[in-house]
Amino acid sequence: MKGSRALLVPPAALLGGCRGIQAALDPAGEQSRVIGSVWDLMLIVCGFMFALVLLFIGWMLWRAWRGRGLAQASEAAMSPHERGLDLTLRGWSGLIVIGLFVLATGSFLADRKLAALGAQPALHVRITAQQWWWEVEYQDADASQTLTTANELHLPVDRPTEIELKSADVIHSFWVPNLNGKTDLIPGRTNHIVLTSRRVGQLRGQCAEFCGLQHAHMALDVTVDDAAGFERWRQRQLQGARAPMTPAQKAGADFFVHSACAMCHTIAGTGAGGKAGPDLTHLASRRSIAAGTLPMNRGSLAAWIADPQSQKPGTNMPTVDLTPDQLNVLVDYLMALE
What is the mean pLDDT of the chain? Predict the structure, then answer.
């Protein structure tokens, strides 16, 4: 008995694969709950049909084991056994039709509800996918209130957010499993998706369409805040970069602005205005580097700058020859950009 009890798996462990920051079966948004309801309906209907199939297979095997073969039918009329089989097949066909009708109705109602949920978004965000990172722009009628970040998406809880999706190069796919389904980003075309999160916390998005060598390293950190927390984050992002305080940070800022770095990256409030790479104005406030490839810390940042190709082969960020002193002051400066 003790041995058999040790083999029992707790229910929570069995459900572990259905939970977490990137799990479609752990809905954290209004849209994902609607999609989840369709999943539940399909599971119930298909599970019931599967159970019936197993039941009939078991019944057939039992009859074969008992040695009861099919009765031979006369040419004139059906035997009682054949009439029973005919009724069973008719009933089975009707059950299939009913099941398909239930699934089609559930899908239709879910589509209508999803369309209604996106009718009045409170926030507008434009996300542009590039190989292999995400440019995230929070739009506003007042240009001074528009902000740009990279590889992170902050959302206010309980507020619909319409996301405009574009691609700068190849086909990508935007997917935050806990919040909604997948939507493709196609060159030359603009798609839209609405997210309405109902839970504060950290989530994870991912490109879900193979887009090249580093497709797997194209993640998106998603943070859902309460209204006050989101507004505090937004106001910090609207500010320019923090001024360098120490001699090392000042040397790093001067090197950044007068080197190849400024040709690709923007740091608000400085002379760096490149658009080819991510905006680095508040780089150190992010959770990861290079779209989820490395955690945000000094060591990872130094390794990324020194040799990006070894960290993310094929990335468009070039390797710049730096002396150890140049690398150290540059990292000092960038780590201060919170």
Answer: 84
